[in-house]
Amino acid sequence: MANDEPTAGGAGSRPRSEAWKTALTVLQSAKPPCVPEGAEAMTVLVEFPPGDPGTPPHRHSGPAFGYVLEGEMLFELEGEPERVIRAGETFWEPGGDVIHYQDGNNRTDSRSRFLVTMLCAPGQPMLTLVDDEELARRQHLRVPRA
């Protein structure tokens, strides 16, 4: 028995949307270093309770691109002043030999949530904590806080 009615999802079942033409908004653009063969990409969701200081000083083996979903993050990279990144704002870091000092929750009354996509160098961990000795040696690279 032939059916001349369009099938769900088939061509002609609904008019094609034009929304895609204006649906994309560029939130950030950065030129990351060359991505080596064998690198791994991962996207992670990070959630900190109110007032949590976040991850201790660390570095990432490759670049990281992030978006704050909820709350506020106190963000500090080596060589840059600390700053607050609010929900709806983006951040990025180059990875490699750059210390990420802060990513904690800047608010004491609400949680913070952010999404990060990272490129990890082949055979390297995504995150490596920095010890106190290295922090002391590199203190001159940290922007003084007000």
TrEMBL record:
Domain called Cupin type-2: residue spans: 45-116
Domain of life: Bacteria
Cross-referenced Pfam families: Cupin_2 (PF07883)
Gene3D superfamilies to which the protein is assigned, alphabetical: Jelly Rolls
Residue ranges, annotated region (Disordered): 1-20
PANTHER family in alphabetical order: CUPIN DOMAIN PROTEIN (AFU_ORTHOLOGUE AFUA_3G13620)
Protein name, entry field: Cupin domain-containing protein
Species of the source: Streptomyces lunalinharesii
